[in-house]
From TrEMBL:
Residues 44-93 form the AraC-type arabinose-binding/dimerisation domain. One of its GO terms (molecular function) is DNA binding. It comes from the Bacteria. The keyword DNA-binding applies. This is AraC-type arabinose-binding/dimerisation domain-containing protein. Keywords: DNA-binding. One of its GO terms (biological process) is regulation of DNA-templated transcription. Gene3D superfamilies: Jelly Rolls. Pfam families: AraC_binding.
Length: 121
């Protein structure tokens, strides 16, 4: 399973990338990843006019978008729109960070899961 990540380089500039989450046969219930340690879960509702300029992620975390759409921008100006069902790995905890804003006048519902130290994908 591939998910998008936002990470920072040594110069503090943010970039998009991809992470492959390995899956194994879980039998009749489908394919499963290994278990990863999580620290906290945060539920969030973002208003339809949300527009948050440059900021780093407060922690290394997974973002699960449940409802609505948002555009994320990284340091080189590259932009991607994500919506319900998308998962992002936010790793740009230092440096310039990213921008995020609501799209199409939609409220966004999302869940953030902060990761335990040492969790790698």
């Amino acid at each position: 399973m591939k998910i998008t990540r936002i990470y920072n380089d040594e110069a503090g500039k943010s970039h998009f990338g991809e992470v492959e989450i390995p899956l194994k046969d879980g039998g009749p219930i489908g394919m499963l990843s290994e278990k990863f340690g999580a620290d906290k879960i945060i539920f969030r509702e973002t208003p339809a006019d949300y527009d948050f300029k440059w900021h780093p992620a407060p922690a290394r975390q997974l973002l699960f978008i449940l409802k609505g759409r948002a555009e994320f921008t990284v340091s080189n100006g590259e932009r991607h729109v994500f919506g319900a069902g998308d998962v992002l790995l936010l790793e740009d905890t230092e440096g310039e960070g990213h921008c995020s804003r609501a799209m199409y006048n939609e409220v966004r519902h999302s869940i953030f899961v902060t990761l335990d130290e040492g969790v790698t994908f």
